[in-house]
Write a structure and sequence with these properties.
This protein is of the alpha+beta class. The chain has one domain (8-181): Gcn5-related N-acetyltransferase (GNAT) (Aminopeptidase, 3-Layer(aba) Sandwich). 29% of the residues lie in helices and 27% in strands. It starts with 7 loop residues before the first strand and ends in a 7-residue tail after the last strand.
Length: 188
């Protein structure tokens, strides 16, 4: 089943999200992570690393898929600038290490998650298409995601036109750098 036309994708700033929408985004994020946390502080740090920092504005983009009732069906957060030189991404040292040159070639990066009932219906691909259109309009050369080689999302990104262009070991995990060139982008 495809996503119905009553799901709309909107770009929002953190300040534009209602408390119920933020709670729904958090619930989707935590469910998709598949993790449990030893403390509320550990959960908060994990959320900030993979979601929170992207909701603060600047060149970051947050897209939210809302169903007809206004409930969050999924979201995509991403940054339009190369993460390697940015201090706010210093905790993800693979950007400055093994993936530094790849980040220059494909500077835009993203994270996408969907509510379980919205998966396998084309919504994730719609979110990526909307995001890459914005990145293309901004003149970006390419977009990337970094994920575990064994993660279930690797096949999804490949279906969305991403290809593996690098890999590295990071904190005991085998990571892949999946990238996609954007039309008319400025090459670094």
């Amino acid at each position: 089943m495809r996503v119905s036309d009553d799901v709309r994708i909107v770009e929002v700033a953190h300040s534009g999200l209602t408390p119920p929408q933020l709670a729904q985004i958090d619930a989707i994020f935590l469910e998709a992570s598949g993790r449990s946390f030893a403390s509320a502080a550990e959960e908060a740090a994990f959320r900030e690393r993979w979601l929170g920092r992207y909701l603060e504005g600047g060149t970051d983009i947050a897209l939210v898929a809302l169903d007809a009732a206004g409930a969050v069906a999924g979201y995509l957060v991403g940054a339009l600038q190369d993460p390697a030189p940015q201090e706010r991404f210093a905790d993800l040292d693979y950007f400055r290490g093994p993936f530094r040159e790849l980040c220059r070639r494909y500077p835009v990066h993203l994270h996408v998650n969907l509510a379980p009932a919205s998966r396998n219906r084309g919504l994730g691909a719609r979110l990526i298409a909307a995001f890459t259109a914005r990145a293309t309009a901004a003149g970006a050369a390419g977009v990337h995601v970094v994920t575990a080689r064994s993660a279930r999302n690797v096949g999804f990104y490949r279906r969305c036109g991403f290809a593996e262009v690098g890999s590295a070991q990071w904190r005991g995990r085998d990571l892949v750098f999946l990238a996609k060139s954007l039309p008319g982008g400025q090459k670094n």
